[in-house]
Design brief:
It is built from one helix and two strands, in the order αββ.
């Protein structure tokens, strides 16, 4: 809605998001083609209501936006 709600860094996830994949392999978990790994939130949760709009900006891959309608 035009104001910054949160900010985070990838280093919040085990020092580097790639470390979560290393952890999986050390647990004996093998990934297959098409598998999806989510590292979770790096910013905490922000409540949303009808009419709210959000844009997430990622420094190296671009941005994504969503609008909630009621």
């Amino acid at each position: 809605n035009g104001e910054q709600a949160a900010e985070g860094k990838g280093s919040i996830v085990m020092g580097d998001p790639w470390n979560s994949l290393v952890w999986l392999t050390r647990q004996g978990i093998a990934l297959k083609a098409g598998d999806f790994v989510s590292t979770g939130t790096m910013t905490g949760l922000t409540p949303a209501a009808a009419g709210d709009g959000f844009e997430a900006k990622f420094s190296t891959i671009g941005s994504v936006a969503v609008a909630f309608t009621g």
